[in-house]
Every structure is written in structure tokens, then in C-alpha cells.
Amino acid sequence: MLKSMSVVREAIADDEADDAMAERVAAGQAKEQVETGRRVLPIVEGVVLVAALFAPLVLQDYLTVFATRVIILALFALSFDLVWGYAGIMSFGQALFFGSAGYGVALLARDLDITNIFLVLPAGTIIGLTFALLLGGFLLLGRHPSSVIFVSLGTLTGSYAADRLARGWYYLGGQNGIPSIAPMTIGGYEFLEGPPFYYLVLGILVVVYLLCRFLVRSQFGLALAGLRENEQRIAFFGYKAQHLKAIIFAIGGAIAGLAGSLYAFHEGFVWPNMVGVVVSTQVVLYVLFGGSGTLIGAVIGTVIVEGVSFWLSDNYRDIWPIILGLLLLLVILFRPLGLISLVSGERERVGSFGAAAKETEKEKRNAAP
Amino acid sequence: MANAFAAAFEILSFGAIIVLIVLGLGIIASMMGIFNFAQGEFVLLGAYITYLAYAKGLPIWAGMVAAPFVVGALGFVLEALIIRRFYAAPIVAMLGTYALGLIIREVVRGLIGGFYLTVPEPIGGSIDIGTIHISAWRFTIIIITLLVMAGCYLLLSRTSFGLRMRATLENPSLARASGISTPLMYGATFAFGSALAGLAGALIVPVFSLYADLGLRFLIQGFVAVMVGGVGSFIGPVAGAGVIGTLSAALPWVMAPVVADILVFVLAIVFIKFRPQGLIAGRGV
Q1: How far is A244 from chain B (nearest CA, A)?
Q2: Does residue B103 sit at the A interface (CB-CB below 8 Å)?
Q3: Do A328 and B258 touch (CB under 8 A)?
């Protein structure tokens, strides 16, 4: 399986070999609808959206609160998916941007009494963006391209160091974090937990999702997919691979920051784990589970992991993390593209986006010197 | 004077602990190109086995001797079942070993509950030199670390097993052509690295006590040490571990511990950025 995958991947990078690739994929994964060219992901996206729209109507109150949290985490997962699933940058420290934005808005609310939604959300986004620009710029740019290992360990270390800082710094509340953050406001209205907050978050998720969808289907997104599959070839095409990576890393950081500020206001408190390794690896789990490299995969992965863990944690709290580890191992070994690959083919994931795909590829060929 | 000596001993013993933990990590990373996220949990398992022996009323020494063998055997089995599939893809290997580590950690957490369990030092008391008292057990750890380091070095550089191991890792196809069973060598290397982690866990448990996140605490420090030292040789990670261990033990004496903690990581990452090959470049022993 793995071997046939790598064969397929090589073929993908070779844009002449499209048909050969389709044949190989079809041979390897006969069940999938690659041959017919039917596109499954838009249907999945539609189903998920409809389900999300009607969820608060059927869910009890406490479940709506839970669903809101899941949607915020899905937004966070989206940021990691852009970075890892599309650009192939292993960011083990995505929580650094999530958590620092959370801390940032918590401080705004605590010390400056700023809770206006039009101020705090942009502030959180900018905090995430700034940290991602700094860290990403340092790790990714430079005379020598950094190795994947260095980037992944660098982000991991960054997140770990931030965790230690948050734990040790009295101003940030130390071990306890910052409790009882005032609710987010718009004019005189306060966003408390419940359906309005849910729909606000869902709206933000949909907007960000559409922006990401536009982004990954653009020239830029196609170049990123190429980067993930074969960085060297993209570099030979004349793209500045390092710059592309730094840009997507910064965008991912901004989205994580947005999610982090929403999370801080929704939960009403921030604590050191939020910037640390625990949350960083959690988001990796979501995306791997759902299927990296498809936007909807990240969302579905978050919903499934959080949903199952919520459901199991009543009766099987102790063994749930063990089950999670086992499932993750199985997914990595046997379904490296995540659960979404059960319904959609490799071809749909990689980059023949829409009917205009052929033209786009030609454009790309012309655009490159 | 006495204070300075005590500080120096403290720094030295912490450095030795880090070196001990990084040895296994470094051998697996250098020789196999895999950053094993489950290494921290191998340390934890070693500690747990020692605790188990103690709780069952066996001498602690017995647990400490058993730990590396049990963890090594487990490493061998895991390599054959799972790790083997990851060699082509280092990032997937990280995620896969992370999942493995998660499973081991949570199983141990389930076994010990959320407690901090203490294991007494097999050699208690202190060694008195004039007016200075140093912990006898920490001193023993330093001695054992030195012995293990020398042993590993000799094993890799002087024995035929070490030669075959290095041959396999440097050029697998040529090694196979020369009649070396490469899958067996990979398994043996991984088992060896795991056994070292088990030993480290067994030795440090009296100092740090046993809790489920024991391994996690050292994992990131270990990775950073390996990168600082340089991947690809035996001596590189050891040197890196010495530097990182010494720095993280020494800096809190001169500045606020929080700042020191973070400064070590920042310095290390900046160093690796500008010298990606690490302190000691080059391959081999």
C-alpha cells in the first residue's frame, strides 16, 4: 500500500503522467470513484454544512456549548491542515499561535477592558500572524533550506518553551492561567455560551473555510500541493519554495490566532496547556484522522475525535486516550490519508481542482520560466 | 568554595542524566534517521519496571537490571511490527512513534493512577568529602553513565557487531550483498536504543519519582540535544546532551529559572539554525 502510494505520488509530480496516474490509482484503490471522475468532496462539504446549521435546533443546551467548542477547534484544525496538509510543513507547535492569541485577548479583556468583537478578534488574528511570521520566518527562511526535521522540532520546541513561560510568569497567571474572562461584546450585547455564539462561530468557520478553499484552488494552492509532493521540482519550476512556505505558515498562524481568541472567550479562561505541546499534538490528531490535504477532512476529523471522546469520556475516561492512540496508529499505518480517503480518491485531493484544472496546469507551465 | 563544589556536582549529575537519556535517542536518530517520539515512554517504562520490582518486594537492583532487557525486547518487537514501515518517511515516523508513545504513556497512567510514586535509592546516604556532602546515588549515576558511554563506544567501534551495525546503516544494499541480515540489524539497533532508554528510566526514578509524564519532560530536551550535537554520529548527540544538560542545570544559578529554562531552548534553536550539522559533523562512531 505504502509503496503504491509513493509510486502514485511520484507520478503526480510529473504532470505529463496524469493518465498513467489515474490508472495506477484506480488499480490500487478500485473502490474509489476515481475512474468516473465524480467529485465527492463538495457533497461531503454540503452535508457537513447542513448538519452544522441544524445542530443547535436538535441538540440540548449543554451539547450546543460543546458543539461550539468543536467548531472553534475545527477552525484551529483548518489552520494546521493548510500548513501540513497543503504545504507539507510539519508544525508541531500550532498551539503556540492558538494559545498566544488566547492569552493576548485575555489580557486585553482583563487589563484594558476591551471585549468588543471588532477589536478582539482582529487583535487575536494579528497576534497569531505576528508570531507565525517571526517563528516561520526564522525557521523556514535563510540561505540554506531547513530540513523537515528541523522545522518540526523547532516548532515543537517553540510551543514547549511558550508553555514553560506561561507556567512560570506571574503576569500570565502562572499554572492557573487567566480565569473568568469577560464575555465578548458587540455594542451592548454580550456573547454568552449558547446558540448565538454557535452561529457566530459557525459563520466565521464558513467564511474562513471558503477563503481557504479559494486559496488552495488558486495558482498559489496548486504550487503548494506541488511543494508537498516534490519540493525540488517546484523549486526547479522557478518558484521560491521557502517564501511560499513562510506565507502559508503565516496564514495558518493567523487562522490559529482567530480560533484561539474565540476559544478564550468561549471557555472564559486560558491556561498554559493552550500554548503547549498537548494542544499542538491534539490538532495533529484531528487532521491526520480526518484526512490531511483536504479542508473538509480537518473539520470532520475534529468532529469525530472530539465527539467520540465526549461520548466515551463518561464511561471510559481512563482508556479513551489509549483507544485514541491505537486508532491513530492504525490510521497512520493503513490509511495515511485519513478517514476522508474512504470516500474520495487521491486524485481529488492532489490538485486537479474543478473543470479548469487542465488550463490551470498549462498556465502554471507557462508562468514558470 | 563548598557551595561552588556543590553546584558543580549538581550540574554534573544533571548533565549525566541527560546524557544517559539522550544516548538511546541519539543512537536511533543517528543510525536509523528516526526521531523516536516514544523514547520518553521507554524511559517511563524502565522507571515503571523498577517501581514494580520494588513494590513486589524484590531488591531495587533486580528491577534496574531487568528494565533495560525488558524494554529492549519490547523495542525489538515494536520495530518488527510497526517502526519498520516508517523508514522511508521521517515525518510519518515521528507521528507513528508519537502514537506509540501515547499508547504506552496512557497504559502506564492507567496502571499507576495519577500518583507520584517514589522509589528509594538503592545506595542511600551521602558521600562526605571534608565539609561537603554529595548524594551517593547521584554520584553512582555519574559513574554508570560514564561506564555506559564507554561501553557503547567500544561496542560500536571495536566489535564485529558494531561494525555490521554501522555497515547496515551506512549502506544497506552493500551490507546485504555482504551477507549481513539488515532487518535483523535494524531491529537490534532499535532494541539497543530502547534498552538504553529503559536503563536511563530505571536509574533516574529514585531521583525524580515515577509519574506518567516523566518521559515527556525529557523528550524535547533530548531532541534538542541530538540536533545541537549533530545527527549521524555516536559522539555528536552525547556532546550535545552534555552541553544542553550542563546549560539547563547551570543557568538557573545565575538568573531566574523561568528565563533560564526558555533561554536554553532559544539558544539551542538559534545554534541549530546557523549550524545545521551540529557541534560535531560527520558520520561514523
Answers
A1: 19
A2: yes
A3: no
Query: Shortest Cα distance from B227 to chain A (angstroms)?
Result: 8
What number is the average pLDDT over the span A66-76? 89
User: For a pLDDT cut of 70, what percent of chain A falls above it?
Assistant: 82
Phi, psi of B95 (to 5 degrees): -65, -40
What is the ipTM metric for this complex? 0.83
pLDDT at A345: 63
Residue ranges, chain B, pLDDT below 50:
none
CB contact under 8 A, A154 and B103: no
Q: B108: which chain A residues are within 8 Å (Cβ-Cβ)?
A: none
Q: What is the 3-state secondary structure (H, E, C) of chain A?
A: CHHHHHHHHHHHHCHHHHHHHHHHHHHHCCCCCCCCCCCCHHHHHHHHHHHHHHHHHHCCHHHHHHHHHHHHHHHHHHHHHHHHHHCCCCCCCCHHHHHHHHHHHHHHHHHCCCCEHHHHHHHHHHHHHHHHHHHHHHHHCCCCCCCHHHHHHHHHHHHHHHHHHHHHCHHHCHHHCECCCCCEEECCEEECCCHHHHHHHHHHHHHHHHHHHHHHHCHHHHHHHHHHHCHHHHHHCCCCHHHHHHHHHHHHHHHHHHHHHHHHHHHCCECHHHHCHHHHHHHHHHHHHHCCCCHHHHHHHHHHHHHHHHHHCCCCCCCHHHHHHHHHHHHHHHCCCCHHHHCCCHHHHHCCCCCCHHHHHHHHHHHCC
CA distance B180 to A180: 64
Name every chain B residue with its beta carbon within 8 A of the beta carbon of A139: 273
pLDDT at residue A360, as a whole number: 43
Residues from chain B contacting residue A152 (CB–CB below 8 Å): 91, 94
- Looking at every residue in chain A, the average pLDDT score rounds to 77
Q: Are A336 and A280 in contact (CB under 8 A)?
A: no
How many A-B residue pairs are in contact by the CB < 8 A criterion? 98
Find which of B28, B248, B255, B269 to mutate to test the A interface (most A CBs within 10 Å of its CB). Answer: B269
With residue B127 as reference, give the H or E element that holds it.
strand B126-129
Cβ distance B258 to A281 less than 8 Å, yes or no, reads no
**Min CA distance, B120 vs chain A (Å)?**
28
| Beta bridge mates, B126 | B135
Cβ within 8 Å of residue A283, ≥6 positions away: A73, A76, A77, A79, A80, A94, A95, A98
C-alpha grid cell for residue A273? 496547556
Predicted pLDDT of residue A346? 60
Chain A CB contacts of B261 under 8 Å are 161, 164-165, 168
Interface residue of B213, B265, B277 to substitute, partner A, most A CBs within 10 Å: B265
